[in-house]
Amino acid sequence: MVSLVVALAALTTGGALARGLVPCELLQSQPACYVAMRPGPAEDVLRLLEVSGARSYPSTGELLLTTVAVDEDLGLAEWLRSRASGVVETVPRDQVFPPGSDRDEVAEYNAALMADSQLTATLAALDELGFEVVGEGALVTAVVEDAVTDELEVGDVIVAVDGHAVTDNRGVVTAVQARAPGDRLALEVRRGDASRDVEVVLGAASDDALRPYVGVLLSTELDLPVEVVIDAGVIGGPSAGLMFALSIVEALGPEDLTDGTVVAGTGTLSRDGEVGAIGGIQQKVLGATARADGGHGADVFLVPRGNLDQAVDTPVTSDVLLVPVGTLDEALAALDALARDEVPADAVALPGANDEAGAASRDTAAAR
C-alpha cells in the first residue's frame, strides 16, 4: 500500500461513496477503486520558513499546516478497516488520482500546486504588511498532458496576451476566460533571455464544453522586496495557503499572533486573501490535535467557513477551538481577539472524547 502526503484541496463526493457501495474491485490482484484518507502529519510552518531582506520577529507559539495521508491500492480487508475506523475516510480513487494518471504525474502536479500556494500566500502576506510587490508576468509552472499547445514549457513567462501586457497570472486567466473554445490567443513569451510569439487555439474543458482551456498551470514571476523560502518537503497540494500567509505575517510583523498557543489550520488562499474550502477536514483536525510527532496538540484550529459543518463532527481526543474564517483578515482578527482572551462569536469549542458537552456543541454548530 502506497501513501501520499498532501495538503488536500476540495474533493467532490462520488455517487458510489454517497450510497455506501462496496469497492468495485474485490480481488487483491486487481486495482482498487478507492483510496483511504487518514490524518497526516502537522508541521509548524515557522520552522519551515526562512525570510531575508527585512527584519524578522520571533514567535512564542506554533502555526501548524495540516495534511492528509492518502493510502492507495486498498484491498478489501483494508477498505473494510478504513470504513469502520471512524477516523479514516474512503473516497473514489479518481477524486485524488485522475483516470489515466500515475503516481509521479500526481506528485508533480501537487508539487506545482504547493509552489503556487506558497507564492500566492507570500503575495497576500506582503500585501497585508504593506510591502510593494511588482509582477513581471505569468510563470508557467506545469504543462498537463492534454495541453492545447506544445510550444509552452515550464519556466516560460507570458508577458503579453494579444498585445496587452500582463504582470501576473490573473492577467492571463482573465484573458482566457473572456474567450470561447476555438478562439486564438497571441502570447508573447519570455524564455530565458529570449522573447518569442506563441499562438494557441483554446480547447474546451473536459467538464464544460463552453469553458475555454489551455492546459497549463500559471503562477506569477515577481520582483519581491523580501525573500521567502518555505521548505515543505514532500508535502504537496494547495490547501496550506492560509497557514503559509499567517506564518509570513508572524515572521515579518512585530505582533506575536500566536501568543504562545498552538494554532493549526487549513484553507486555500487567493491573492486577495479569500480562504477556500478543502478536502479531508476531519483528518486534518485529528492530525493537529493528536500530533504524530508527539508535539502539543492544537489549541485552536482555523477552519474554512465552507468546512465548519464537517469539522464539528470530528471525534477529537483533546479539546480544540474551531474558528471559522473566510479571509486572511478574518483569521488575523480572530488571532488578535484570542490573544486578548476574547473568543470569536462564531467559534465552536470542540471537547475531546467522552465529554458530554461535545455532542451539544456539535449539534449547535450543525443547526446554524
List the helices and strands and how they pair.
Blueprint: E1 2-6, H1 15-19, E2 34-44, H2 45-48, E3 49-52, E4 62-72, H3 76-85, E5 89-92, H4 103-129, E6 134-143, E7 157-161, E8 164-165, H5 169-177, E9 184-191, E10 194-201, E11 203-205, E12 208-213, E13 216-223, E14 227-230, H6 241-252, E15 262-265, E16 268-269, E17 275-276, H7 281-289, E18 300-304, H8 308-311, E19 320-325, H9 328-339, E20 348-350, H10 356-367
Parallel strand pairs: 4-15, 15-18, 18-19
Antiparallel strand pairs: 1-4, 2-4, 2-5, 3-14, 6-7, 6-13, 7-8, 7-9, 9-10, 11-12, 16-17, 19-20
Task: Give an overview in words.
It contains 10 helices and 20 strands. It is α+β, with helices and mostly antiparallel strands and 368 residues long. The strands form 5 sheets. Strands 1, 2, 4, 5, 15, 18, 19 and 20 form an 8-stranded mixed sheet that branches. Strands 6, 7, 8, 9, 10 and 13 form a 6-stranded antiparallel sheet that branches. α4 (103-129) runs parallel beside α6.
Q: Calculate the terminal CA-CA distance, rounded to whole Å.
A: 40 Å
Q: What is the succession of H and E elements?
A: EHEHEEHEHEEEHEEEEEEHEEEHEHEHEH
Helix content: 25-40%
Principal-axes geometry comes out as globular
Work out the helix count: 10
Give the low-confidence spans. 11-31, 357-368
Please indicate the percent range of residues in DSSP E strands (runs of 2 or more).
25-35%
Main sheet characteristics: 8 strands, mixed
